[in-house]
Amino acid sequence: SLGPDVVDIRSFAKTGMFTYDPGFLATASCESKITFIDGDQGLLYYRGYPIEQLAEHSDYLETCYLLLNGELPTPQQKADFDYMVMRHNMLHDQIHNFFRGFRRDAHPMAVMVGVVGALSAFYHDSLDINDPHHRKVAAFRLIAKVPTIAAQAYRYNKGLPLSYPKAGLSYAENFLHMMFSTPVSEYKVNPVLAKALDRIFILHADHEQNASTSTVRLSGSSGANPFACIAAGIACLWGPSHGGANEAVLKMLDEIGSVENVPAFMEGVKNKTHKLMGFGHRVYKNMDPRAAIMKQTCDEVLAELGLHNDPKFKLAMELEKIALNDPYFIERKLYPNVDFYSGIVLSAIGIPVSMFTPIFALARTVGWISHWTEMIADPGMKIGRPRQLYTGAGRRDYVQLSERK
Ligand code: ACO
Q1: In angstroms, what is the span from residue 64 Cα to ligand 1's centroid?
Q2: Rounded (10°) CA dihedral 215, 219, 222, 226
Q3: Is 281 a catalytic residue?
Q4: Could you tell me the end-to-end alpha-carbon distance of the chain, in angstroms, rounded to an integer?
Q5: Is 241 left (phi over 0), alpha (psi -120 to 50) or beta?
Q6: Is 368 within 8 Å of 233 (Cβ atoms)?
């Protein structure tokens, strides 16, 4: 018993006034007009447009405009939007001092959580969440600066001088330039690889109320500023069950080593010693539509680079073949998700494994800020405050320290 005057919240459950739903398996936390998913049919639409059409015909910044504003831009709107993002992609020079404060071997996601949160210490003209102009400028700043921050985190780790964005390059090209150009050698962008990276950005741009987006919404519901909220989203994304999965896939392929070791690894999966990373999804109980697009992109990139016989890729294809025919996976509706292939594509492009999740974070920034904006602009917004099912001790009296044994 919790004591005579305490109402046990479990009594509400009997009247239907209280739901207990660990992991939010059956609870919608909000209304949203941004992204639609049908997990049984494997459908994903941004603002009503199928992901397949956007991946084929759009580019990342156009997709950003669509997610933020609800409609595809006119040519003039697209030009203005691209210009605004490019205008904001530099970092305040003092922000460079932040990078130097971290250990060189820090994970880039750790650096990103800190530096993105610190943007609130610099851009005071985008902190008033009640001012639509402030909200808009915050969105531009985040979409523009997060790739710059991610690239600098990598360069600091490598001991390279910090780099600057370059005018005249696309969003994906600029990111590759900031990662890999040095004062003595300009990175030559291969258009097939830049297109593949842009497609990775599009596919990761939004995914309705996933863990990190829900984190951004919950943080924002208290009135916290947008930079702090996006830093919270980055922290959540880092976990291996979420955005950290693309990194975990490559680590898993390294651990398995070669095709001969696959059967023993699969036994371990079935005994629940480990998971098959890059497989399974909370919502998709059919093929993840992003995975199908990513697999095709993977083929294009490997063909461009002459890597089709790459042992890691062969190993991944063997795992996919076995899993798709194995009753354990079929019964549980476990299909490859987008991260099973995106890691292979990123690796082929030459991106180090530690940068996989930062790339997911920079692509998802637009989804996070679109959800944050939608929520803040809603006059009915309430602070998010879940309840709990208390299972602790009942009421008891304090015992003086001297009397405790
Ligand atoms: N490998 C092996 N078995 C799995 C896997 C997997 N990757 N995923 C789920 N299962 C099994 C579970 O052990 C469970 O089996 P049981 O019924 O015998 O107990 C069953 O499938 C259901 O699994 P849940 O954990 O209930 O599924 P949930 O929806 O909670 O988890 C998640 C989804 C977290 C994505 C899970 O599938 C997973 O950890 N996958 C690997 C990590 C990964 O790839 N994450 C990326 C997600 S996509 C993204 O963030 C872009």
Answers
A1: 29
A2: -130
A3: yes
A4: 25
A5: alpha
A6: yes
Strand partners, 49: 46
Interface predicted TM-score (ipTM): 0.95
Q: Is the dihedral of CA 246, 61, 172, 365 positive or negative?
A: negative
Token couple for 96: 């460079």
Amino acid code (one letter) for 338: V
Catalytic residue selected from 59, 206, 288, 339: 339
Q: Which residue has 């900031």 as its token pair?
A: 178
Evaluate whether 169 touches 147 at the Cβ level (below 8 Å): no
Protein residue with least CA distance to atom 50, ligand 1 = 242
Tell how far the Cα of 281 is from the centroid of ligand 1, in angstroms. Answer: 6
Check: CB of residue 183 under 8 Å from CB of residue 163.
Answer: no
Q: From the CB of 334, is ligand 1 less than 6 Å away?
A: yes
**Cα 304 to Cα 306: distance, rounded to the nearest angstrom:** 6
* pLDDT tens track, the chain, 405 positions: 566 666 566 565 556 667 899 999 999 999 999 999 999 999 999 999 999 999 999 999 999 999 999 999 999 999 999 999 999 999 999 999 999 999 999 999 999 999 999 999 999 999 999 999 999 999 999 999 999 999 999 999 999 999 999 999 999 999 999 999 998 999 999 999 999 999 999 999 999 999 999 999 999 999 999 999 999 999 999 998 888 888 889 999 999 999 899 999 999 999 999 999 999 998 898 889 999 999 999 999 999 999 888 888 889 889 999 989 999 999 999 999 998 999 889 999 999 999 999 999 999 999 999 999 999 999 999 999 999 999 999 999 999 999 999
Query: Would you say the CB of residue 275 lies under 6 angstroms from ligand 1?
Result: yes
- Per this entry, what is the length of the chain? 405
Residues 253, 319: Cα–Cα separation, whole Å: 9
Catalytic residue among 88, 177, 281, 371: 281
